[in-house]
Design brief:
By secondary structure, the chain is α/β, with parallel strands linked by helices. It is built from 15 helices and 12 strands. The chain has helices spanning 2-7, 22-30, 44-53, 69-75, 104-112, 135-146, 203-210, 214-236, 245-255, 281-287, 327-331, 339-347, 356-363, 377-385, 390-401; strands spanning 11-16, 34-40, 59-60, 79-82, 122-128, 149-156, 169-176, 238-240, 243-244, 293-295, 318-320, 351-353. The protein is elongated, with a radius of gyration of 24 Å.
Length: 402
């Protein structure tokens, strides 16, 4: 039996939409016996970064729909890892779904899958929140069912693993029957890992929450009439920097969650010259009130997108490096100040962007990961914004193969 185990060859993995190698690193972190036999991506810049970090992996710089069934059959792969283009499904994108030209390659994969000589035993797919309500997802499910796969869908964020970065993503794990997962599957999209202990709410207590007794209804109605309007007004009143009491309570709760690491654990210790990352005065004046500002001791940050460092609004958190300055004091009566006075106040915070290395740390990239020198700062942010969290994917791979 031991001899058979030793002779078992590693799983042959095909990485589609390989990007900068996030899936490859996740596969390594999962510690399963596997090797990436080929990585396919049309993005030439991403391919340069991939080759820089995985020089021995064969990269195909071509469109997926440009490859034939015979070419895929020659790979003789056991597993597919893929992150199809997210723009057709993202909240800020066109939301054209399967009508978007960028969905063409993914639809081609679904059409090609049943024609393969040997179906892969495992499939892992990652995409943005929004994919779970798409027509593309329905076609994916139909294809998997027709090919006799069992599957489970998830919406997961790195915060579940104690990482202070909200990056909610859709994941699907598929396993070829008759093999089954090591966990119970559900028809619904799960919002936590299956091996995490669920909240213990008894059926009776849950029933009472949803359908209260008449006495409880009367009590709720009396309370609601008197307090709901007051509470709403109090929670939604702007305190400073467009922050409401509700927002501040939510952030305070996140920062008090000791199960999540602090931002300082992911920062560069030897950052020699932070000047390239400081936010320009023009951007500060324009976006000061909507910046998501975090400190080194915070246990949260918002999702970093491909526009980070180039655009300010909605692209990711910025870091307050002045530890001795209170945010609330800087923004008190901010609207009444002149532009020069506003800049003087904002300068006290020493706000800067997270560096590409720090974002890579939050995404779980190992310290040995790097960029070729010719890759610009803007390109690095863009590539990382299109990447994924390695720790989340590694855990899912282990659950899929277990």
């Amino acid at each position: 039996m031991m001899e058979a185990d030793v002779l078992t060859p590693p799983l042959r993995v095909l990485e589609l939409y390989s990007g900068i190698g996030g899936m490859h690193y996740a596969l390594k972190e999962s510690c399963i016996a596997a090797e990436v036999i080929a990585a396919i991506d049309i993005n030439t810049v991403a391919n340069e970064v991939y080759k820089h970090n995985f020089p021995n992996t064969c990269i195909y710089p071509k469109t997926i729909e440009g490859m034939t069934v015979d070419e895929f059959n020659k790979f003789d792969f056991d597993m597919i890892l893929m992150s199809p283009p997210c723009q057709p499904f993202t909240r800020l994108g066109s939301q054209k779904d399967v009508l978007d030209s960028r969905s063409k390659s993914f639809l081609y994969i679904l059409d090609l899958l049943p024609s393969l000589t040997n179906l892969p035993k495992y499939i892992l797919l990652e995409n943005v929140k929004g994919f779970e309500t798409s027509a593309a997802r329905e076609k994916l499910k139909q294809t998997l069912e027709s090919c006799r796969y069992t599957y489970q869908e998830f919406l997961l964020s790195p915060t579940l693993l104690g990482i202070p970065n909200s990056r909610l993503r859709y994941f699907l794990l598929a396993k070829l029957k008759p093999d089954a997962f090591c966990f119970q599957t559900f028809n619904q999209v799960l919002d936590q890992f299956p091996d995490m202990e669920s909240k213990k709410t008894t059926k009776a207590s849950r029933f009472n929450q949803l359908f209260p007794t008449d006495d409880k209804k009367e009590e709720w109605n009396k309370s609601a009439c008197c307090t709901s309007e007051i509470k709403r007004e109090r929670d939604e009143a702007v305190l400073y920097k467009l922050e409401t009491l509700r927002h501040l309570k939510q952030k305070e709760s996140q920062d008090n969650n000791s199960s999540v690491q602090m931002i300082q654990d992911f920062l560069e210790e030897d950052l020699q010259d932070p000047s390239p990352y400081f936010i320009s005065p023009k951007s500060l004046l324009r976006y000061a009130l909507i910046l998501d500002i975090v400190e080194q001791t915070c246990r949260r940050s918002v999702c970093f997108t491909k526009g980070y460092g180039c655009y300010v609004e909605g692209t990711g958190s910025v870091l307050k490096t002045a530890s001795d300055v209170e945010l609330v004091l800087v923004f008190q009566s901010f609207e009444t100040l002149s532009e020069d006075e506003k800049l003087t106040q904002l300068a006290k915070l020493k706000l800067r962007y997270f560096t590409p290395r720090e974002i890579a740390n939050l995404h779980g990239f190992p310290l040995k990961f790097g960029f070729p020198e010719k890759i610009s700062l803007k390109q690095r942010y863009r590539l990382l914004g299109n990447s994924l969290n390695i720790h989340v994917v590694a855990k899912l791979i282990k659950l899929m193969v277990k």
